[in-house]
Amino acid sequence: MAQRAQPVIGTTGIVAGGFVVVAVLLSFLGIGLRAEVGRGIGPAEWAAIRFTVVQALLSALISVLCAIPLARALARRRFIGRGFLITLLGAPFILPVIVAVLGLLTVFGRSGWANAALGYFGVPPLSIYGLHGVVLAHVFFNLPLATRLLLQGWQSIPAERFRLAAQLNLPPRMIRRTLEYPLLVQIVPGAAALVFVICLTSFAVALTLGGGPRATTIELAIYQAFRFDFDLARAALLSLIQLFLAGGAALIALWIIPNFPLGAGLDRTLQRWDARSGLQQVLDAIVIALGSAFLLLPLLAIVLAGLQGLPEMPAVVWKTAGNSLGVAVLSILTLLIIALPMAGWISTRRAGGAEAIGLIGLSASPLMIGTGWFILINPIADPVPLALPVTALINAMMALPFALRILVPPMRDTLVTFDRLSRSLGLRGWSAWRWLVLPRLRAQIGFAAGLTGALSVGDLGVIALFADPDRATLPLQMYRLMGAYRTEAAAGAALLLLAMALGLFWLCDKGGRWRAEA
């Protein structure tokens, strides 16, 4: 049984989990030492709290409401390129935020494609900045996630239930009432809660599209207190507020996220007969076309503008690209050193505490942890030279929840399957890792490493607190170019950053699957 499997158990998993706990507790200690709770929460802090909650609620609501018809259309239609389109729904997750924002500005900005089309018809231009800009960007990132969750739920309905509905000659409205509505009741709250948590800790979107007293999130307020006022007490107080808000929301989200399978089936794809009328086919086609355009046009804009902007990039862009690449590689190595032992610990002992440790990245934002570490480091050393390694370490911790979700199920299956054989052969410690675990988890390890590298190379969070001009990463340098109105150079840097993120993901994922054992 998995409870008795011993080949990889040892102190390494406990040490890795303890390291994560200590790192987070140290950041909490730094925040607690400087937070002046007695000073109270002023009007500016309340405004940031309200804006953070409102934009997260609107983003979650709009993302899920738009995902319902898109997922339903994809679930009941078969067309050329459907699989490729569903694969592309995962692209925004590894897309650097600052790159996506530039693509959205190209399409929806004041001089963007959408306003050019509106101007042709005499409609006043739209502004992408403020609340609606932040919500638009969050919908761009989270609509694919919500669609994938709903689509997974729709496809979990056994085909036999639809066949039974056909035999009973149920009309489409009865199929919606008996099969689809109960599904939505189970999945929609969890999907909305997950998107809400993600939007609570989205720093780069608020930094580029928010700002101003009426469009400031808690994390943006932390950054402003830190970089502009150097008011560490206020930054620490805001970090505590962010911790309680995001942590509470994360616990609620984990509690209500459902298990998607609704019953046993034969996993057959079924052409739905309840949506074969011409009107329904046209409506589904329109929904799929609009959803695809919303997701793909910003990517196309990045490529077109980036090709024109490559010659305009200053030399410092290449230096910061090297810094970003180094941070990403260090993040990957750190993630594997932490995640693999923790995954072994969870798999062999069903360590619920370890799983909770791995989920810290959903509630403790990088900016909050970076603030705590800066407060602790600043009295004894200059934090600036530590900017890049600290950024790499925090990025690895933020990717840990996703890596554990990828690694634990196949590792648990491997240990259960080969438990008796490993005992009879005396496989323990490194021998078990070398001959049993690593060969069978190469594909999952490569995928987790690629995901970590892509997220790390495009991160604009901790580095914004620590960095100086000599230690900037490519996302931060790109933000500086945008702030200096060097749009062409920023577009070139965006294309370079996009290529680095996708290249890292592809290289690690492909390397993990190359000649991997089944």
Q: What proportion strand? A: under 5%
CATH class: Mainly Alpha
* Structure summary, number of beta strands: 0
Q: What is the number of helical segments per DSSP (H or I, 4+ residues)?
A: 23
Compute the CA-based radius of gyration: 24 Å
How would you sum up this structure in a few lines?
Residues 1-8 and 259-269 have low confidence and may be disordered.
Topology:
Layout lengths: L10 H24 L8 H34 L5 H7 L2 H4 L2 H12 L4 H8 L10 H25 L3 H9 L4 H29 L2 H7 L8 H10 L4 H25 L21 H32 L5 H35 L2 H7 L7 H12 L9 H31 L1 H7 L3 H12 L1 H16 L5 H4 L7 H10 L3 H27 L5
Helix pairs in contact: 1-12, 1-14, 1-16, 2-7, 2-9, 2-13, 5-13, 7-9, 9-12, 11-12, 12-16, 13-23, 14-15, 14-17, 14-20, 14-22, 17-20, 20-23, 22-23
Structural write-up:
This protein has 518 residues and is mainly alpha-helical. The chain has a single domain, classed as MetI-like fold (Orthogonal Bundle). The protein has 23 helices and no strands. The protein is globular and about 75 Å long. The two termini are 22 Å apart. The model is unreliable at 1-8 and 259-269 (pLDDT under 50).
